[in-house]
C-alpha cells in the first residue's frame, strides 16, 4: 500500500477540482448521500470528496491525482448494487461516472453499440428498439442500474437462462488504470484471441482493477413479444423436477423462475395477483422465440407430467407480462413483509448445480427451523441461481444474530453442494470473507498477485472483493 | 527471468524422471518429433527433454523441478496448433499431457463433462452422443486436437456463428502454476461471480500462465441432424450482402461459410465436387435447429434476393454433409494446390467486422496483385473471421518474400478495418510481433505485469505470445 498524503480542501480544489469538466464536492451532506449502494448492513466509511466525472479526461485526471497522493478511489455508477461494492471507504474519493451516459454509436450491421458507462440499462434497451436491436442482460434493477456497473459486476438477471450474463455481451472496454493510464481491452469483432482476455478479467472485477469509461457491447435482433406460462406445484421438489425435465428437452426459455410458498403468500399480500396459496411452489416460464406459443405448451406438458396442479397460459404480450409481474413483485413483496416484521431482510445469491435445487430448498427449510429465522426462496431456476431471503427484527439483537447465522449457513450449504457464494450479486464487502472460503490457496494467491500487478499501490476500491484473500 | 541451472541427463533422471508415473525422454530423435506443432515457417528450438505426463502429479512434479532449476517449460497437447505455440524453445522441457485423456465424469442433469486435457475433441463428441449431449466447439482440426489445447488457445471453428467459442463452454479448470501449485479456477455452476474471472484469463493464454490438467465443460443437448444449403454468387460482394441480410433477420445458422472463386477451383481440383467454377463466391449454410428445413429455405430466399445464381438444398443429413464437405476440403485443396506450385502456404486468420468483409476481399485482391502473391480466401462469414491463404514457392527467395509481405499486409489491413490479427488460431510465435502492434501501450503493460505476477521467473512457454510486448 502507498503512503496517503494529507490533502486539504484547498489543495483538492486547486490540484483536482479546477482541472475537471465535471465537479468536485466535499459537502458532507452530499457525500453522505453518495456513500452507499443499495445493500443493507454493509459497512461504509467517510469519503474525502466526490468527483462527478463528465468525461474520460476527468477520470484520468482523478486517477492521476489519487495515485500521486495515495488516495483510495471508489468507482461508482448508479449505486444500485447490493453487496456494498460501491460503498465509501474512509478518506476515499468517490468517483462517479453516472453523468457519462451517452450512446456513442450504434452499429446496426455488426450489431454492436458503444456507450459511456453511466447509461441506465433500461434506457439503453429503449433506445435500441428503434433499431430493431436488443441488449439482453436484465438485472432486477434494470430500470436504475448502469451499464458500467453491470460490467463491473458481470450482472445477471432473469434472461440469463437463454441469453447468458453480461460478460457474453462485452466486446471491448476502455478503462482507466490506477495510475491514470487509458487503455482499450478486448476486441470489437465477433471473435478474437490476440492476447490474454483482459476485457473478461476486468468484467466482474468490481472496481478493483480499473474504471470503465467506455464499452462496446454485442447486441441481438429484437425478438417477438414473449409469451408466458405459470405452473403451480404441490412441492418445490415437483417444480425442480419439472425444470430438469424441461431443460433436458433442449428448450431455450427466455425466463424460468421459481417462487416458494412463503413468497407466493407475500406476493399476494402485496398485490392482487390471485396466486393459489395452497401450492408448494410456482414456476413461471417465458419464451421470446418465434415458436413461443408451442414452447409454452411444451412446458405445460412437462409440468403436468411432473405433477403440476395447474398451468395458466398467457397468449398475448400483455397477459404474459402480468404473469411475470408476479415474479417481478417478489422483492417488493419481501420488503413489504419485512417492514411489517421488524424491517430486516438479508438477500442471498447462491448459485448451485441445477440438480441440487431440491436438496438446497429442503436444507434451507431446515436452516430456517434450526435458527428460527424466517427464510423465503425464489430462484432463477433454469440456472440454479437461488435467492433465499432471510427476515429479521432489526431492533432485536437475537433476531439479527439468528438471521446472520442463517445467511452464513446458506452460503456454506451452497459451497457444500458444489456451488458458489454469489451467482450474480457480487462480493463487495458483504461477502469478501466468504470469497476467501470459496477459493483455494493457489487461487487466492493468484488474486493477490494480479491485484498487486494491476494496482500496485492498492488505491482502487480497497476493503472490498479482494480484502480477505 | 531466472537463472538456468546446468542440468545433465543423470540429474534429470534422478530428480525428475524417477518421480514420474509417465516417462521422461532425452532421445534426440524423439525430441525432434515433438519439437513442433502443425505450423509452417515458425521458429523452434532444441529441447532438453520430453515429459509425457500420465497424471496431475506428474505435471506438478515437472513444474516444481523446472521452477527450481529455472528451466523453460513448453506445455503440449496434440500439437495441432498452427501458430507455433507448442514449438520447443532451446533447453526446454516439453511437457505433454496428451496421454491424460480420460473422461472423468458426465453430469447429465447439469449438462457438464469433466475431462483430462489430452482427450481429442472428436473423441469427446462421440462419447457424449450416447448421453444425448454435445460439446459444440469444432476447430478444423477437430479429429486431432485436444481439449486442453482448445482451452489454451480458446479455439473456434465453423459452429461459432451459433455456438460461440471454447471460452463459452469452460466452466472450471484445474491448472498447475509455474511453481507447481495446483489450483482450481472458475465455477461448475451456470453462473458465478465470486472473484476475478481467472478461468477466462487462463483460457486462450497459450501455455504462458499455467498447465491445464482438468476441465469441466458446459454441454448442450444433442440437436437434430443438420440440413444445409449452398448458394452461388456472381461476386464476393453479393455473398457478403447475403450474409448481412440473412444475419439481420435474427437467423441462427449453425454454420455460415464463404469460399472465393480461387478456392472453388482448387476444391474442384482436389475432389469431384462439381462446383460451378464460373461464380465469384459460394456460401454454405447449415441449420441444426428443429426448424432446419424452413431455415434453409429462408436462407435461399435471402440469397436469391441478393443476387444468388443458384441455391442447392440438402434435405437429408447425408446430402447435407456432402455440401459441407466441399468447405471442409478447402484446406486439403489448398495444400494440394500448394504442393503443385512450390509447396509454400501461409494461412492467415484475421477477424474483422462483418460489414467490412467486401472491402477486405477487394483489398486482399489488390494486395495479391501488388505483391504478385497468389491469395485465396475462405471465411467463417457469419463471424467475419477471414482465412486468406497465401501461396508461394519455397525454393524461390523472392516468392517467399512476396508471400510474407502479402501476409503482413493482410494483418495490417485487418487492423485498419477495426479487426484483430487472429480470430481463432492464436498468436504463438508466428504473430507475437503483430500482437504488439494490435495492443496499445497500456494494454501491453498490463500483459507484462500479469505475466510477471503469475509466472515471475518466466519459465512458462517463453518466446511465444507475450514475447514482444
From TrEMBL, chains A, B:
Cited InterPro entries: FAD-bd_oxidored_4_C, FAD-bd_PCMH, FAD-bd_PCMH-like_sf, FAD-bd_PCMH_sub2, FAD-linked_Oxase-like_C, FAD-linked_OxidoTrans_Type4, Oxid_FAD_bind_N, Vanillyl_alc_oxidase_C-sub2
Keywords linked to the UniProt accession: FAD, Flavoprotein, Oxidoreductase
A Pfam family assignment: FAD_binding_4
Superkingdom of this protein's organism: Bacteria
Domain FAD-binding PCMH-type: 43-222
Molecular function in Gene Ontology: (S)-2-hydroxy-acid oxidase activity; FAD binding
Requisite cofactors: FAD
Statement: the UniProt record of this protein carries the keyword Flavoprotein: yes
Endpoints of the signal sequence: none
EC number: 1.1.3.15
Top EC group: oxidoreductase
Family membership noted in the UniProt record: Belongs to the FAD-binding oxidoreductase/transferase type 4 family.
PANTHER family the UniProt entry points to: GLYCOLATE OXIDASE SUBUNIT GLCD
Name assigned to this protein: FAD/FMN-containing dehydrogenases
Source organism of the structure: Corynebacterium variabile
Lineage: Bacteria, Bacillati, Actinomycetota, Actinomycetes, Mycobacteriales
Amino acid at each position: 500500500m502507498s503512503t496517503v498524503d494529507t490533502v486539504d480542501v484547498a489543495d483538492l480544489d486547486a490540484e483536482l477540482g479546477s482541472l475537471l469538466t465535471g465537479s468536485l464536492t466535499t459537502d458532507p451532506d452530499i457525500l453522505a448521500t453518495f456513500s452507499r449502494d443499495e445493500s443493507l448492513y454493509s459497512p461504509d466509511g467517510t469519503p474525502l470528496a466526490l468527483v462527478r466525472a463528465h468525461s474520460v479526461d476527468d477520470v484520468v485526471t482523478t486517477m492521476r491525482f489519487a495515485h500521486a497522493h495515495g488516495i483510495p478511489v471508489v468507482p461508482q455508477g448508479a449505486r444500485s448494487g447490493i453487496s456494498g461494492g460501491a460503498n465509501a471507504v474512509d478518506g476515499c474519493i468517490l468517483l462517479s461516472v453516472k453523468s457519462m451516459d451517452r450512446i456513442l454509436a450504434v452499429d446496426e450491421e455488426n450489431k454492436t453499440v458503444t456507450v459511456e458507462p453511466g447509461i441506465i440499462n433500461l434506457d439503453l434497451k429503449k433506445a435500441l428498439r428503434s433499431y430493431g436491436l436488443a441488449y439482453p442482460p436484465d438485472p432486477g434493477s434494470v430500470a436504475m442500474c448502469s451499464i458500467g456497473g453491470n460490467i463491473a459486476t458481470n450482472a445477471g438477471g432473469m434472461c440469463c437462462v437463454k441469453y447468458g450474463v453480461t460478460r457474453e455481451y462485452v466486446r471491448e472496454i476502455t478503462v482507466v488504470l490506477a495510475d491514470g493510464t487509458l487503455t482499450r481491452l478486448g476486441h470489437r469483432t465477433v471473435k478474437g484471441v490476440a492476447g490474454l482476455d483482459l476485457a473478461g478479467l476486468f468484467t466482474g472485477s468490481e472496481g478493483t482493477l480499473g474504471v470503465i469509461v467506455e464499452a462496446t457491447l454485442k447486441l441481438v435482433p429484437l425478438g417477438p413479444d414473449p409469451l408466458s406460462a405459470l405452473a403451480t406445484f404441490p412441492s418445490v421438489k415437483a417444480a425442480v423436477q419439472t425444470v430438469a425435465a424441461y431443460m433436458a428437452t433442449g428448450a431455450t426459455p427466455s425466463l424460468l423462475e421459481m417462487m416458494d410458498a412463503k413468497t407466493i403468500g407475500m406476493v399476494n399480500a402485496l398485490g392482487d395477483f390471485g396466486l393459489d396459496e395452497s401450492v408448494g411452489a410456482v414456476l413461471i416460464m417465458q419464451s421470446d422465440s418465434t415458436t413461443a406459443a408451442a414452447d409454452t405448451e411444451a412446458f405445460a406438458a412437462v409440468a403436468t407430467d411432473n405433477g403440476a396442479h395447474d398451468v395458466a397460459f398467457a397468449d398475448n404480450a400483455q397477459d404474459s407480462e402480468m404473469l411475470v409481474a408476479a415474479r417481478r413483485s417478489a422483492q417488493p413483496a419481501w420488503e413489504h413483509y419485512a417492514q411489517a416484521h421488524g424491517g430486516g431482510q438479508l438477500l442471498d445469491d447462491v448459485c448451485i448445480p441445477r440438480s441440487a435445487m431440491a436438496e438446497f430448498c429442503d436444507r434451507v427449510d431446515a436452516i430456517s427451523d434450526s435458527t428460527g429465522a424466517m427464510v423465503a426462496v425464489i430462484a432463477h431456476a433454469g440456472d440454479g441461481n437461488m435467492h433465499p431471503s432471510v427476515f429479521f427484527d432489526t431492533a432485536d439483537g437475537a433476531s439479527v444474530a439468528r438471521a446472520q447465522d442463517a445467511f452464513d449457513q446458506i452460503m456454506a450449504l451452497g459451497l457444500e453442494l458444489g456451488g458458489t457464494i454469489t451467482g450474480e450479486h457480487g462480493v463487495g464487502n458483504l461477502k469478501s470473507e466468504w470469497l476467501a472460503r470459496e477459493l483455494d490457496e493457489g487461487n487466492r494467491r493468484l488474486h493477490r498477485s494480479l491485484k498487486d500487478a494491476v494496482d500496485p499501490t492498492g488505491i482502487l476500491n480497497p476493503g472490498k472483493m479482494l480484502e480477505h484473500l
